[in-house]
């Protein structure tokens, strides 16, 4: 049963967070539009597409930045009630510090649950729209071009392209090798492969079939055919993991592991972040209360300055270890959770000191 204290703090906790979010989102949009306005105008982007892109942009970045917004808002209103000696009044009335923290944990649970639902339902679709708009209007074709792509598409077939352009759905120097009982049965080569009207078009086609009596060579200028793989799956875009629901992401990861994708850590980082980011709401809440619940001589400004340093340090660790995991063999699970574990320890010592 929520008491007056719980309702008061919980209301301040949630309203401050929503207010800060409402204030910063227009600023984010304005800055982003100012940065991209020239490309939007030069590409003659229709207004409905721009509005949809801005909505996706808001959802996409709010998902990543909400812990920072929550941290600042919690510090702001807790510093305010501390400067008004309300915290001292609560504790002097016989309320323990642990009891004082209860509405904060209730609020953090609400925010964390909402963030999990938000990231599961809205963020994947927004991420797809945001990145597709970026690829279509803000990036050159060379930005989505991938080199030296190798895939195992099933137990017997391996494919390779020296160069792939996702915008054209075209690969160059295509090779398919088919093995039977660990021996090469046949090999298909083409100067380029392109997906057109539900079929694969091979230009400069050549097939070499290996038999006990010698090799059989088949050459054609062009061949329209079908293969047991999707052209988009040949070289998944770097953001594809962000666009998938959680179940779809797990299926995608299993499929890419079977195919020998060398960039698996990129997808695992995205998977683990979907739980690590919402959980950080609890850590930021504890740190914010511990730092700002004590009235300081410098006032609210000192608390907010300390809070910003802590928040920037968290984001720095998150970015550094995420990049290390994506580009090396470092465990993505450890990399994603290092910031939470590190600042969880910091939160423990800060809150223990605040109780005194």
Strand-helix topology:
Layout: H1 4-42, H2 47-83, H3 86-92, H4 97-121, H5 123-138, E1 145-152, E2 157-165, E3 170-180, E4 183-196, E5 199-211, E6 214-225, H6 231-234, H7 246-258, H8 264-292, H9 300-326, H10 332-355
Antiparallel strand pairs: 1-2, 2-3, 3-4, 4-5, 5-6
3D architecture notes:
It is built from ten helices and six strands; from the N terminus they run αααααββββββααααα. By secondary structure, the chain is α+β, with helices and mostly antiparallel strands. It folds into two domains: 4-136 and 264-355, no CATH class; 154-228, no CATH class. The protein has a six-stranded antiparallel β-sheet, with no helix packed on it. β3 (170-180) and β4 form a beta hairpin. α1 (4-42) packs parallel to α4, α8 (264-292) packs antiparallel against α9 and α9 (300-326) packs antiparallel against α10 (332-355). The longest helix has 39 residues, at 4-42. The protein is elongated and about 95 Å long.
Number of domain units:
2
Q: Report the strand count.
A: 6
Helix content: 55-70%
Distance between the termini: 27 Å
Helix segment count?
A: 10
Q: Give average pLDDT, whole number.
A: 85
Order of helices and strands: HHHHHEEEEEEHHHHH
- Biggest β-sheet strands, sense, barrel: 6 strands, antiparallel
Strand content: 15-25%
3D shape: elongated
Poorly predicted ranges? none
Rg is 27 Å
Strand order of the largest sheet: 1-2-3-4-5-6
What's the quick description here?
By secondary structure, this protein is an alpha+beta fold. It is built from ten helices and six strands. The longest helix has 39 residues, at 4-42.
